[in-house]
Amino acid sequence: MKNTSKLPEVTNSIFSVMGQMAHAHNAINLSQGFPGFDTDPKLHALVTEAMASGHNQYAPMQGVYSLREQIALKLNTLYKSDYHPETEITVTVGATQAIYTAISAFVHVNDEVIVLKPAYDSYEPAILVNGGKVVPIQLKAPDYKVDWEIVKQAITPATKMLIINTPHNPTGTVLTKEDMLALQAILEGTNIILLSDEVYEHIVFDRIVHESVAKYPKLAERAFITASFGKTFHNTGWKMGYAAAPKHLMNEFQKVHQFAVFSVHHPTQKAFAHYLKTPNHYLELGAFYQRKRDLFLELIKESRFKMTPSSGTYFQLLDYSAITDEHDVAFAERLIKEKGIASIPTSVFNLDQEDFKMLRFCFAKTDETLEQAATILNAI
């Protein structure tokens, strides 16, 4: 049989490659973005209890209503928004499925989608497999600030969607109120859909406030917000997230969602519906991870790496330009093989794989792991 690939340029993700290398060389793995500690035992118990109580058949397509109710309450309380649980919230198989579904529901052949790079690697394949065209805008190291005038100039009559991510993976930067107002002014009067990846919404530092799209009615009326319980509650393997959007957009989203996955793991939904009733379970997350960030940076302050403290997410970029001129992929591979530590080279997220000599390290690990990693980094 002869087949033509819909994604001929796509290979294994950098996360798989570096993760496999880390395993093969028994390296400390600060590459993939998953916590190195377990989720709350109370949440484990709630899932078990839901199973024992018989919640083992299909959940409603949109998600268990009690969970959608808690999601809407969280959004509306934090951001003074007005999402309705019945029509404007859908529970998804992680944020990645929410992103893919939103793109699939609206992007037609030859539609243009603006992507700010470096960008998480799931965005562009989802655009391409639906026949869309990626319009990349490269952000520059070391501050990775968005030049909104360049974004404005990139908009054409074919622009269907614009994707933002805040707090931002892989750079750890956070969009400001001024950024959101600039974006709002650019999109006003257009038919462009905004897809806002906010999976790290509760992981912000130094008294920075997360500027959710939900806080800006003129943005929210055209936007999907995608989020992840896995990132928030240390259980990425559970693959549980959600999307929020106005009813007229969510209607189209659910048309695709119901035929992609139909519904999401029922007992876990019941558990999260109960767990979210205690807001401190997510409101204390920023302080928890700021301590991790600060510990990691303190431990490596005498190293030859240069760093700007991450403002959000559980990732820290380290500039290695004072150490070597090697391409970041080559250097990352050598660190695994020769030094026993794994990171993510960031050029893979950039336009034309531009190399800023930056590696991404995940500090969502135990203190012991961070101390071991710092010993290695300080010796380079």
Tags for this model:
three-stranded antiparallel β-sheet; alpha/beta; 380 residues; transferase; 2 domains; globular; Aspartate Aminotransferase, domain 2; Aspartate Aminotransferase, domain 1
Describe this entry's structure for a reader.
Its cofactor is pyridoxal 5'-phosphate. This protein has 380 residues and is of the alpha/beta class. The protein folds into 2 domains: 14-32 and 284-378, Aspartate Aminotransferase, domain 1; 57-281, Aspartate Aminotransferase, domain 2, CATH 3.40.640.10. 40% of the residues lie in helices and 14% in strands. It is built from 15 helices and 12 strands. Helix 4 (94-106) packs across helix 10 and helix 13 (285-299) packs parallel to helix 15. It is globular.
CATH class of the largest domain: Alpha Beta
The helix/strand series, from N terminus to C terminus, equals HEHHEHEHEHEHEHEHEHHHHEHEEEH
- The general outline is globular
How much β-strand is present in the residues?
5-15%
The CATH homologous superfamily of the largest domain is called Type I PLP-dependent aspartate aminotransferase-like (Major domain)
Radius of gyration: 21 Å
Specify the number of helices: 15
- Please mark out the parts with pLDDT under 50 across 5 or more consecutive residues, or reply none: none
Distance between the termini: 51 Å
CATH architectural category of the largest domain: 3-Layer(aba) Sandwich
Number of strands: 12
Give the class from helix and strand content and strand pairing: alpha/beta
Count of discrete structural domains: 2
Spatial order of the strands forming the largest sheet: 2-8-7-6-5-3-4
Q: What helical percentage do the residues reach?
A: 25-40%
The major pleated sheet works out as: 7 strands, mixed
Cofactor: pyridoxal 5'-phosphate
Organism: Dokdonia pacifica
GO molecular function, one term: kynurenine-oxoglutarate transaminase activity
Domain Aminotransferase class I/classII large: 27-375
